[in-house]
Amino acid sequence: MQKFVVTFSLLLLQIATFVTYSKDIEKVKGGYKTCTAYLYDYKYGKLVPKSKLKMFSFKFDEKGNKIEKIKFNDDGTLDYKTTCKYNEKEIKVEELKQTSSGSVTSVPLSKYDENGNMIEEVIYNVDGSFDYKNTYKYDSKGNKIEWIKYKRDGSVRTKTNYKYDDKGVKIEEEFYDTDFSFNNSKITFSYNNKGLVIEELTYKEEIIGNKLAVNYKVTYIYDDAGNLIEWKGYHYPGGSFGRKATYKYSSFITIHFPYRPVTHVAAKISSSKFNVNSPFTIKSLMKFSTFFENIALA
To answer: Residue 181: inside a domain, yes or no?
Structure first.
C-alpha cells in the first residue's frame, strides 16, 4: 500500500485547455506542524513573472494527521477553511467546511465498516438539507476499488474504479459516466522503491483517432521522510512543462529563557537551516528570540 497518504483532485479537460490540479496533504512524517503550498506557472519552459500563488496551508496534530486546511483565492484572501477531528484509531470522524466569515457551509456524516474503511459519506448543508453523497467499496485486502458520487437528486454524478497490482499498490484509476459507461479517461501511477507515487499519467480519448493518449503528466518529489515537497505538470502532446507547486513544512518548538520575564518563545525553526540540538548560549538565544516568530521553514 502507498505509505504517504495523499488525496487528489484533477479536472480532466480537452487538450487545448489548461489543467487545474491540486494535491491535498492528509498526513505528514517528521514532526512537522504546518505546511504551505505555492503554485507557479511556466510558459515555454520559463517561469511566468509574478505567477507565485499561495494555494493552501495545512496544520497537523502530534501524530501527523491533518487537522486544518485553508484554501486561498488568487489574490491571497481566504477562500474557505476545513477542520478535522479523529478518534483514538486515527480515523477521521469530523470534517467541517467554513467560509471566510467563519460560518459552517457543510457537515459530513460518515459510515465505516468493521475494518475502519469509510463506506459512505453524506454531505449536508448548514441548514440541514442534503447536498451530495459518496459511497465506497473495498476488496478483501482493504483496497478501495470503487467510488460513486451522487447528486442532490440521488442520481449518479461520477464513478471511479481503482486497480491494484499483486502487492496491493494502486496502479490505475478509471472514470465512468452517469450510466456507468467508461468515459475514455484514466490515470496510471508509477512508484519509487519506497512506495511513493513519482508519476501520474492522465489519458483522454484523442479527438482524431478515437484512442486513449496521454493528455497530462505529473511528477512528484519527496523529502527523506516521504513528505511531498514538489510536483510538476506537463502538457501533451509535446510534454511541455506548464506548472509546478512547492510544499514548505515547519515545526514548532519551545525555547525557555530562565533569565527573562518572558519564560518561553514559540519558534518556527527550519530543520534544514537550524540545528535545534546544537548548544546555544542564553545570550545568543535572547539576541534572536524576537525574530523567531517570523522564521518560516524554507
So the answer is: yes
Residue among 230, 225, 258 nearest 244 (CA): 230
Q: How many CB atoms lie within 10 A of CB 296?
A: 12
Domain that residue 95 falls in: 6-256
Question: DSSP character for 270?
Answer: -
Instruction: Judge whether 261 lies within some domain.
Output: no
Query: Phi and psi for 296 in degrees, rounded to 5?
Result: -115, 145
The DSSP symbol for 292 reads: G
Q: From residue 272, how far is each of 21, 80, 275, 280, 297 by CA, in Å? A: 28, 31, 8, 17, 8
Work out how many domains the chain is built from and give that number: 1
Residue closest to 215 by CA, chosen among 2, 5, 3, 15 = 15
Please give the Cα distance from 29 to 267 (Å, whole number). 19
Among 291, 245, 287, CA closest to 270: 291
Per-residue pLDDT reduced to its tens digit, 278-291: 333 333 333 333 33
User: Do 123 and 133 form a contact (C-beta atoms < 8 A)?
Assistant: yes
Q: Is residue 296 part of a domain?
A: no
- What does the alpha-carbon distance between residue 66 and residue 59 come to, in Å, rounded to a whole number? 6
Task: Copy the grid coordinates of residue 258.
Answer: 530562565
Q: Are 46 and 243 in contact (CB under 8 A)?
A: no
Are 139 and 124 within 8 A, CB to CB? no
Which pTM does this prediction carry?
A: 0.72
CA 33, CA 29: separation in Å to the nearest integer?
10
Instruction: Provide CB contacts within 8 A for 34, sequence distance 6+.
Output: 57, 58, 59, 60, 249, 250, 252, 268
Q: Is residue 139 part of a domain?
A: yes
Q: Using one digit for the tens of pLDDT, what is the confidence trace for 202-239?
A: 999 876 667 889 999 999 999 999 999 999 999 998 88
Give the CATH number for residue 248.
2.40.160
Q: Which residue type does 60 have?
A: F
